[in-house]
Amino acid sequence: MKIKWRISFLLVVLILVLLTVRNYQNRVYDWDMPGYLGCLYTSEFPDSPDKVRQITYISIQKEAPDDQYQDLIGTAPFNIPRQYFAKNTQAFTEQLPYFRIKVGYICMISLLYKLGVTSPLSVLLVSLISYFFSGLLVFYILKILYPEKYIMTAFLTVGIMLFPLMTYIARIPAPEMFIFPFLLTFIIGLIRKWSTLTMFLLLLVITFIRPDYATFTLSYLVTIFLFTYYKEETVYISFIVQGAVIFILYISIINFYDYPGWKNLFFDSFIKRRPIISAEPPEFGISDYVSILYHKAIYFKKITFAALLFIAVVFWKSKDLWVRVFSVFFFANVYIKFLFFPQSAEIRFFFPLIFLLFLMMMYAISQKHNNFKLTNIS
Does Ribonucleoprotein appear among the keywords (predicted)? Predict the structure, then answer.
């Protein structure tokens, strides 16, 4: 069996290498890239915002296909805010705090840049490398869940990594793929029942990479706190302390990097993209928010269908309270994220959370058919 698993693993590695190369060949230079490069160059030239803007767009123009570059600067198709960002230093500089708070992501880009990789490619390589390692982690998780199914594990891993949304996220300059291996590591720790300290350190890393995942990390601590209290009737102060530390980390990041705040982000994303943020206050009320939420929810049906399907299978296949509680935790986080950022047209924002719920469904199925017990994992 060990030989069969090794052959299966080697085949998956080979296919992942080929898929990663294919994603590199089809890489996309989209409108997020100037923001992350602006953050990178600001650390080099903190007192030269004009130079930062110019170098950012010049470096992208050198590498990007012309059609992608024209889209990025807002000339084809026509996009006024993007034209402002490319030509107006104030407009460009005021956008950077939206990107700068992804601290861990920026650090990884900076590391590759300092190693000699060009700045645009540094952003893209983070996604490509994360894609490859995500494939390895998916294989490892499925191997844990289905220790006798080496053929199924290999085929399912490749199928998942070939999923169009997965390959798309691997090709774009955005942090969704970078956070993915850490979330997969999180679910490994959850299944293997890693120590409280190890899980806390992982939560810190996730929050450091993506501060907007603070809702995920804090809600996990609330969930585990309530679950352990229900099972053991014991209040673990450590979970409260951990939550406080993560909250302080989140507040520190958004204050240090002058994050404009949720209201500005929501206004620019769903009401009106302001070319110059400081030129217009983000005025909208509760009725505007509810109206946008309602209309976005209508186009959220693919995510809703998948989430409901996965949670239904979990409750059908598993009577284990632990499995049900943490499946509900992942399910709830999909909609917590939607409430804060209802970008239903961009499924990539919700895909990592939906995938964690999918893995809980796979765990529930493995419990049912393989007599798989959490307590037997070591």
Answer: no
How far, in Å, CA of 242 to CA of 204, rounded? 9
Residue 219: which of 312, 309, 340, 313 has the closest Cα?
Answer: 340
Residue 264: burial class (beta carbons within 10 Å; 0-12, 13-18, 19+): middle
pLDDT single digits (tens) 291-344: 999 988 888 888 999 999 999 999 999 999 999 999 999 999 999 999 999 887
Residue-wise burial string across 115-132, b where 16 or more C-beta atoms lie within 10 A, e elsewhere: eebebbbbbbbbbbbbbb
Do the Cβ atoms of 175 and 102 come closer than 8 Å?
Answer: yes
Domain ranges of the chain: 1-178
Beta carbons within 8 Å of 29's beta carbon, 6+ residues apart = 60, 63, 64, 65, 68, 69, 72, 120, 124, 173
Tell me the CA distances in angstroms from 159 to 4, 48, 136, 287, 378, one per residue in order: 19, 47, 13, 43, 28
- How far apart, in whole angstroms, are the C-alpha atoms of residue 356 and residue 338? 16
Run of H or E residues at 26? none
Q: Using one digit for the tens of pLDDT, what is the confidence trace for 248-294?
A: 999 999 999 999 999 999 999 999 999 999 988 999 999 999 999 99
The secondary structure of residue 33, as a DSSP letter, is H
E-assigned strands of 228-283? none
